[in-house]
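[Meeting: bench + compute handoff]

Bench side (C.D.) handed over the final construct sequence. Compute side (W.E.) agreed to return the predicted structure before the next meeting so the bench team could plan truncations. Sequence as handed over:
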Amino acid sequence: MTVASPSSLVRARWHRTIASLPEDRPAVTPFHSRQWAAAWQSPQVESVLAHRHLLLSDGQRTHRLSYQLSDNSPLWKALESDTHRRTPVFSGPVVYAPSLYSQYGGLPGASALVLAEAVDRGRQLAQECDAQALLVPNLAPVELEQWTRIRPPDAQARLFYAHRTPIGAGLAEFTARIPTSQARAELQRQHSRGTDAGLVLRTVTGAALPPVLPAIHALHQDETRRQSRPTLYSLAMLTALPRIPGALALLAEEADGTLAGAFLGFRHGTTLYLWAETVAHGRRGDHTLGWLLAESIRHAAATGARVLDAGRGHYQFKRRMGFTPVPLTTAVYLTTLHPRVISSLRELNTALDAFGRP
C-alpha cells in the first residue's frame, strides 16, 4: 500500500533547533527522546552540514523526526571499511533521519499519513540540499514493514543487528539459557578469569558520569588506532550523553583503577540499553568483554530491569550467548534514481552478511 500525498491531512513544520519544539510524550526508547535529539545537535564526530527537526501532527498525535545533512559519518565509513569497499557507496552528502548512531529509528506509533509525510518532506529536504539520498536508518522489522509499505524505498541495507534478552532472575538464569554447553563454559570462564584478575564493576550515573568520559574516550581511541579503524565516538559526543535521562557507564576497573573496558548506555523503563562499548584487548581482551557482560546482567537484575539490550557489534559472541538478534535496516530514498548506488548498497548488504553477522 502506498499512501497518497497527505499534505492536507498532516500538519508539518520544520524547526532548526530542538528547543523550539513542544515537549514530547514519553519516548519508546532513549533514541526517540527529545533529549537524545538535543544531544545529537551538539558537536560530535560526524560531519554535519545542517540540522532540521520536523514536527508532524495528524490531528490525533504529534511526532518529531530529526534530519541531518552529512558528508561523513564514521559509523558508515566503518561499515565500508569492514567490507573492504574500494569506492564509497555515496559520492556526496546524504540526509539521515535520524543519525546512524541512533540504535533504533523510525517513528513508533505513527500513522501511515505521518510516515508518508516524513518521507516526502525528507526527500524534498535532500533535494534542496543537493544530497544524494534520504536515509531512514535502523528500522526494526515492524517499523521497516510499515515504512516500506507506505513509501517503498529505492533500496534497503541491513546494516546492523541489535541483541536483546530477558533478564530473568539474574546471571545464573541467563547462563542456564545459553544454547550450548560450550558457550556456557565460555562465559563462565571469562567471568571467573576477570574476577580472579581483580576486575571490579563500577556503575557511574548522574553528576559522576562526565569525569569518567575522557578515560572511556581515550581507551576507545587506543583501540581504534590498534585496529586501524575509524574513531566512532568523539569526546564532545560522549560529553553530551549525560543530558539523556538514564545515562550510565558500567566500568570494568582493575585493582589500581585502570580502565579495562566500559559499556555506555541508558536505563529506560524496564530495559537496560548498552549502546557503546570499548575493551582493552591488549591486556584484558581475552576475558573482559565476557566479564563485563556478565556483570551487566547482574547489575540489570539487581536494579529491577527486565530486558537487556546489548546493542550492536560482537555479533557472533552475543549470538553464542543466546541473545536474540534484531535486524536493523536502513530504508534509502534516492533524490535521483542511480543504478550504481542501488547496486553498491546491495553489495554492501551482502558483504556485511559475509562479515560475520547472524
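W.E. noted at the follow-up: The radius of gyration is 21 Å. C.D. will use this when planning the next construct.
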